[in-house]
Design brief:
elongated; two-stranded antiparallel ribbon; 23 helices; mainly alpha
């Protein structure tokens, strides 16, 4: 076969293909066009033969392309807007421009980057970041009522007390109260660190003088608990007193927990002298198995008798710790501190991320929460250090004030920071186990502080949230 014949055959094939495409396009355009043409009638007859498609509207290819472009994420983020009910008063509708969703997704990716690249609480910030991205995808419906995955997660355990309680149970199974039992006076350092929690209540009152800010006592209490640097407790209290602020409160609490190595050392060095930082403490006494078993039971009984509103959190902490210390249910203990804690942490963090929407985050109150949370955490750090210095006035065996900074609930991060700063001034001065005493005491202290707020305001807050009081 000659080259000319081959070329003619290729041209013929190409012509046939072009004609076929043109024919198909012509038929489709006619079939989908508006009007009562024969092809359209044939299409209707075809649809009528398919059960359930009788009322499906016809659409032209041009309309199909236009609709496709209008429903892209790019168009929704640039030109789109939506109306969402205000969290406190659903009768009020907030108009949310698409670009605000874009900013929130950028914040979500920032949280993911901080967790993955900078190792800032990665177990929590990474799923919170993804939850933030998911909930802000336009048209995805991941927080749709009834069927959205994030909404199901939130309703199942974040909007109530289930997930925080399970987290506390897991924390209890991981905690060793031995250092606190061996040196009970370090509990005072954990208690003194709650100064930051209560001091911020006055800070909120001052902040209300700023135009555009108007915090209630419910919101002030939920913000103040950030000073304890305890994420689950912050979520637990916010869920009861100020659920509309839960997302920013949780992110602030976990962020400051992650930033402990950056925030605390300057405060520690400012409030202590070189001589105080070099104070060596005697090795802690051995704590018997019986003491470790009886401690969570005694802790639970005290919570029941003195502050029942804190008993749920402290009770779950005691339950998890008792399972660990009794030694007869190792399978349960390992499940609590591994599989269960990991699963609940993922779900809790995704649920918190689902609250990171523009109407809840992009407002002056959210910025105020970040500032007040940092103030609360700083005062809490200072409170433990100052208490140690005061105690040294009366004690023969001096306490290194650096361990006072571990009175916040960031376990064991804060204790490690105390130890690290001490080693900078004396490489032979190991403070880690001594710092664990006030550290675990801080967990208990923050739970008690939350219990005080719940006992005082929870009933009134529930009425406000449910709409009984406006």
């Amino acid at each position: 076969m000659s080259g000319k014949e081959t070329s003619k055959r290729h041209v013929l094939k190409l012509t046939v293909v072009i004609c076929a495409i043109a024919l198909v396009y012509s038929v489709m355009s006619t079939a989908f066009a508006t009007g009562d043409s024969a092809p359209r009638a044939s299409l209707r007859n075809l649809k009528a033969e398919i059960s359930g498609s009788e009322h499906v509207p016809s659409i032209s290819i041009s309309e199909f392309l236009v609709h496709t472009l209008e429903n892209t994420g790019i168009n929704s983020l640039i030109n789109g807007s939506e109306q969402v009910p205000d969290f406190i008063n659903p009768a009020i509708l907030n108009t949310i421009p698409g670009w605000q969703r874009l900013i929130m997704m950028a914040i979500g990716f920032l949280l993911i980057w901080l967790g993955a690249a900078k190792n800032f609480e990665p177990l929590l910030l990474i799923p919170i970041g993804f939850g933030t991205v998911f909930v802000n995808i336009p048209g995805a419906g991941m927080y749709a009522e009834g069927h959205g995955m994030l909404r199901i997660i939130y309703d199942a355990g974040v909007g109530n007390e289930l997930f925080p309680m399970l987290i506390f149970m897991g924390i209890g199974s991981m905690t060793d109260f031995g250092p606190l039992i061996a040196n009970p006076k370090t509990a005072l350092l954990g208690g003194a660190s709650q100064l930051g929690v209560f001091a911020v209540l006055f800070g909120v009152a001052i902040m209300n003088f700023v135009p555009g800010l108007d915090y209630t006592m419910f919101e002030a209490s939920a913000i103040a608990i950030i000073g304890g640097a305890d994420g689950p407790t912050s979520i637990y209290l916010a869920g009861k007193l100020a659920p509309h602020m839960m997302a920013v409160i949780a992110v602030a609490a976990y962020s400051y927990m992650a930033l402990v190595p950056m925030i605390q050392p300057p405060i520690m060095k400012f409030l202590t002298s070189k001589k105080e930082r070099k104070i060596k403490m005697k090795q802690l006494r051995h704590v018997s198995k019986a003491e470790k078993i009886l401690f969570p039971i005694a802790l639970l009984i005290l919570a029941i008798l003195i502050i029942p509103s804190a008993a749920p959190l402290i009770g779950m902490l005691a339950f998890g710790n008792f399972i660990k210390q009794c030694g007869v249910v190792d399978r349960l203990s390992k499940t609590l501190e591994n599989e269960l804690l990991n699963i609940v942490s993922i779900l809790l963090s995704l649920g918190v991320g689902s609250q990171m929407t523009p109407e809840k985050i992009m407002n002056p109150k959210a910025i105020g929460i970040i500032a007040l949370g940092l103030l609360a955490f700083s005062i809490a750090t200072a409170g433990g250090i100052i208490m140690a210095k005061v105690m040294n006035i009366f004690l023969k065996e001096k306490i290194n004030p650096l361990i006072g900074s571990a009175g916040v609930s960031a376990v064991p991060m804060a204790a490690r920071v105390s130890n690290k700063v001490g080693l900078e001034y004396d490489p032979s001065n190991f403070l880690l186990m001594h710092a664990m005493g006030p550290n675990v005491a801080g967990v208990i202290g923050t739970a008690i502080a939350a219990g005080v707020f719940i006992a005082t305001y929870a009933e009134a807050a529930e009425k406000v949230i449910s709409g009984v009081i406006h």
